Amino acid sequence: MTVDKAWPRGAVTFLFSDIEDSTPLWDRHRAGMRPALAEHDALLERGVLSNGGVIVKTTGDGAMAAFSSPSAAVAAAIEAQRAMHEAGWPTITPDRIRVRMGLHTGEAELRAGDYYGTAVNRAARLMSIGHGGQILLSGTTAGLIASGLPDTANLRDLGEHQLKGLSRSAHVFQIETADLPRDFPPLRTGD
Questions:
Q1: Is 88 helix (H, G, I), strand (E, B) or coil?
Q2: pTM for the whole thing?
Q3: 97 near 19, Cβ under 8 Å?
Q4: Could you give the count of Cα atoms lying within 13 Å of 112 in the half-sphere of its Cβ?
Q5: Can you tell me whether residue 191 is helix, strand or coil?
């Protein structure tokens, strides 16, 4: 993959997403998941690109995106979650696509069309402890956007959690808006 000169460098905010329980959805809707996944990809891409981000790669039923601004990354996550929440998902009814998202900001190495480093790992691990419909932020990202949240959003402090494979625990926050689900089961950390 060729890296565009506009790809973020320095402090980058990474957004990882993943469809919750995609394997059972594929089992129940073999033909219907193809168009549902294409719609998911389009909605996520629209949210990322309209907020100045880049899709670094798709990861099967999710994606990795990068932003030069943490506020833009949060806006993209909210926009994509709203679009997913409002989508009808007619090809997999009565089921729905529910996407979990994790955002973390930090330094990463950009080479050969991909990012490498602990900031990338933290964002991916953060996403993995969430639930479909949930947007999780690291304490680092939350601190950077606290005064720049969209008017319709607020942060819920979920406390310190150990992320799989990482030596330092993470202070985790959840983005909440009035038009998206806000109550989820406990995070999947094993704490």
A1: coil
A2: 0.93
A3: yes
A4: 1
A5: coil
> 143: which 2 tokens?
């601190």
- Amino acid 89: pLDDT: 96
Is there a contact between 109 and 117 (Cβ–Cβ < 8 Å)?
Answer: yes
- For residues 185 and 131, is the Cβ–Cβ distance under 8 A? yes
> What are the distances in angstroms from CA 95 to CA 28, 36, 60, 87, 191?
9, 11, 19, 11, 30
Res 191: pLDDT: 55
DSSP three-state, residue 46? helix
Under-50 pLDDT residues of the chain: 1
Q: Return the closest-CA partner of residue 108 out of 99, 95, 121, 90.
A: 121
Contact 155, 146 (CB under 8 A): yes
How far is Cα 144 from Cα 33, in angstroms, rounded to an integer? 37
Which pLDDT score is estimated for 151? 80
Distance CA 138, CA 172 (A): 5
If phi over 0 gives left and psi between -120 and 50 gives alpha, with beta otherwise, what is residue 32? alpha
Helix (H) or strand (E) holding 141: helix 139-145
The pLDDT tens digits for 105-121 are 999 988 888 899 999 99
What's CA 175's distance to the chain center, in Å? 11
